[in-house]
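Support request from a user on the community tier.

User writes: "When I paste my C-alpha cells into the form, the page sometimes reloads and wipes my input. The last time it worked, I copied everything first. Here is what I submitted, just in case something in the input itself triggers the reload:"
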C-alpha cells in the first residue's frame, strides 16, 4: 500500500515538474555519448532517467520517468550494464526492461600481473582495485589468471570471474605434463621467461640456463623477479643497482631458488618453454636495451658481453 502511495506521489511530483519544464522549455544540452551504462539493483526510475540524461541519451529526464511510470514500464526495468548508441526513448526503455545487458570484456595480456588485472576489473566496475588485488593475492592467483579475453556480466561476483580465469588456465594446460617439475615451479619459471625473453627460441634457451643453475645451487640473478617486488616504488634494478642488496624472497641475487611466487601471468608458450628447456653449454645471459639477448659460457664471457652491450 505504501509503495503504491509513493508511486502516486512521485507521479504527481513529476507531473508538476514536467509542467514547469515544458513551460520553461527544459531540455538537457548534454552531448550524446555512445555509452555502456550500468543500472544498479534498487535504482529508481528517476535515478535511471538522470543517468541517461547525463550521457545525452535523453533530453528530459522528467518526461522519460513520467512516461515510464504512466505506462507501468518502470516495473520491468532490470539491473545490468547496457550499451547505447543512437536509440530513441522507446528503444531505450525497451532495452532496459528487456534485460538484454551488454557483457563487458577484459583482456589479460601475457606478462600482466595480478595488480594489472585488478585495475582492469576495477575499470569494469567489479570493485576497488586494492580490494580486488587483496583477494587475488589471498587466493594465490598470480600466474594462474590465464591470458585471454573474458566476457563479464556487470553484476557478476568477483569470485566467479577469478574462478573462470583459473579454470581457463587448467583447460589450456590440460595436455601438459608436470611430472618432472611441479606445476607451481613451472609457472614460476614461465613467468620469469615471459618477462626475460620475447621469442620462443630465447625462452627455451633461458629456461635451460635457469633450470641448470637452479639444479646446481647457483643463484639465478634474474632482474625481473626483483623488479616485480619493487615495482610499487617506481624503481628498477637498472635505475638503482643498490636494490640488489634488498632482503627479499624475490631477490634472486641474494637467495637461491625461484622467487616466492610467479611474477606475472605467463602465456602458454612460456609455460611450454619452461617444460621443454633447450640444453646448451651456456650459463649466463643478458638483454640489451633493444631486447636482444646475448649468451655466455663463462663468467668472463658474460662480463665482456656486459661491457659491449650494456655499459
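"...and here is what came back when it finally went through:"
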Amino acid at each position: 500500500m505504501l509503495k503504491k502511495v509513493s508511486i502516486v506521489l512521485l507521479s504527481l511530483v513529476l507531473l508538476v515538474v514536467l509542467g514547469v519544464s515544458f513551460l520553461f522549455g527544459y531540455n538537457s544540452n548534454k552531448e550524446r555519448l555512445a555509452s555502456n551504462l550500468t543500472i544498479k539493483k534498487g535504482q529508481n526510475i528517476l535515478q535511471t532517467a538522470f543517468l541517461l540524461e547525463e550521457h545525452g541519451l535523453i533530453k528530459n529526464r522528467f518526461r522519460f520517468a513520467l512516461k515510464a511510470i504512466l505506462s507501468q514500464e518502470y516495473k520491468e526495468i532490470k539491473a545490468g550494464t547496457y550499451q547505447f548508441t543512437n536509440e530513441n526513448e522507446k528503444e531505450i526503455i525497451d532495452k532496459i526492461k528487456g534485460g538484454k545487458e551488454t557483457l563487458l570484456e577484459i583482456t589479460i595480456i601475457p606478462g600482466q600481473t595480478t595488480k594489472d588485472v585488478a585495475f582492469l576489473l576495477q575499470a569494469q566496475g567489479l570493485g576497488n582495485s586494492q580490494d580486488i588485488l587483496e583477494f587475488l593475492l589471498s587466493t594465490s592467483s598470480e600466474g594462474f589468471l590465464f591470458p585471454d579475453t573474458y566476457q563479464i556480466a556487470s553484476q557478476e561476483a568477483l569470485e566467479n570471474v577469478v574462478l573462470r580465469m583459473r579454470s581457463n588456465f587448467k583447460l589450456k594446460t590440460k595436455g601438459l605434463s608436470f611430472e618432472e617439475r611441479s606445476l607451481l615451479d613451472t609457472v614460476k619459471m614461465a613467468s620469469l621467461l615471459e618477462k626475460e625473453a620475447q621469442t620462443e627460441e630465447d625462452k627455451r634457451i633461458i629456461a635451460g640456463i635457469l633450470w641448470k643453475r637452479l639444479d646446481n645451487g647457483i643463484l639465478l640473478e634474474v632482474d625481473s623477479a626483483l623488479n616485480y617486488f619493487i615495482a610499487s616504488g617506481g624503481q628498477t634494478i637498472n635505475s638503482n643497482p643498490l636494490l640488489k642488496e634488498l632482503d627479499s624472497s624475490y631477490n634472486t641475487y641474494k637467495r637461491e631458488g625461484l622467487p616466492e611466487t610467479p611474477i606475472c601471468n605467463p602465456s602458454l608458450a612460456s609455460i611450454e618453454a619452461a617444460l621443454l628447456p633447450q640444453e646448451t653449454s651456456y650459463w649466463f645471459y643478458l638483454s640489451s636495451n633493444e631486447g636482444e639477448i646475448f649468451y655466455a659460457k663463462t663468467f668472463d664471457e658474460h662480463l665482456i658481453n656486459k661491457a659491449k652491450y650494456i655499459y
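Agent notes: The reload is a front-end session timeout and is unrelated to the input. The chain has twelve helices and six strands. The beta strands are 35-39, 80-84, 104-107, 149-152, 284-287, 293-296. Escalated to web team.
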